[in-house]
Each structure stands twice: as C-alpha cells, then as structure tokens.
Amino acid sequence: LDVLAEALQQLRRADVRLVVVGDGPYRDELHRQLAGLRAEFPGRLEGDELVQAYREADLLIIPSAVNASSEAVREAQACAVPVVIRDGSLERYDIIPGETGLVIASDGARALARDIESILDRPSLMRLGLRARELLERDSAERAFFEQWRLCQQS
Fold it and tell me: How confident is the model at residue 43, as a pLDDT?
C-alpha cells in the first residue's frame, strides 16, 4: 500500500480520487500517508453499498503481489470495472493484459502511476471493463456447471 500511496502522490491530478474500501492493519497508516490528497476511507462495505462503490469506480487497483483471493477482481469485473494488478499476484490469472485490465511488472510507484495514467481515458476504461464483464459472464463457474449438467443429461 505504500506504493499505491506514493503513486497517488505522483499523479497529482484533480480528477483522481482514491477510495480505500475495507478495514485492515494498514488503514490508519495509509490514511496518514494520504492526508491532504483526494482519498476516502469508507471502511468495510457489503451488499448494495459495495456494489455502489464498484459502480462509482473507474479502476480497481491491487498493488500488492499477495492477496488472499480473487473475489475483489471478480466483483470489479462483474461491475465492468477494469483492474490494475501487479504481476505475480494470485489474481494474475483473472486478467488479460490490455484486454480486461493491466498487469504491471514493477512494484514501484512510478510504474504504477504511469499505468494508472495510461488507463484513465474514458473510452479505454469502458472497453476494458466491458470486456472483463463479458468474459466473466461467459466463463463463470455457474455457466460451466450448467453446461456440464446439460452434457450429462444428454449422455
């Protein structure tokens, strides 16, 4: 999260706002690092509040190489929100670079700031987000289950 805080400081754009959803051991430290910048900390969100947060987002940024699950990536994709994620992350397999999101090779703030800048134009965001949702819908576990069920019934 230090890298994300530093990248946000480097951006210095009036149209960029960071919303940190969730609670964790680094929340207070991150809040201090981002003091004076456009950052909000709504805490843990669930249900409709979480969906609304995704709908209002332009990007989901996961700067860490280690994350417990790909749930946040799939939630963002379901809401047509493109994802920026670090190479080597557990969620890497959910991203098609340049098609459904971006995979950054470096963990440096400068690289993250550059990648955020490269994706901030609205047509690119819409294209990446919509493609991510399309692929998620097509490849969902539920769809795969029902297809297998249909094939079993035909046998």
Answer: 92
pLDDT at 3 exceeding the cut of 50? yes
Q: Tell me the DSSP string of 41-107.
A: EEE---HHHHHHHHHH-S-EEE--S--S-SHHHHHHHHTT--EEEETT-GGGGG--BTTTEEEES--
**Residue whose entry in the numeric block shows the structure tokens 């890298």:** 3
- Whether pTM exceeds 0.85: no
Residue 104: strand pairing partners: 86
How buried is 86 (Cβ within 10 angstroms: 0-12 exposed, 13-18 middle, 19+ buried)? buried
Query: pLDDT per residue over 81-110, tens digit each?
Result: 888 887 776 555 578 888 888 877 766 888
CA distance 24 to 84: 20
**57-70 pLDDT, tens per residue?**
988 888 776 654 57
CB 67 within 8 A of CB 88: no
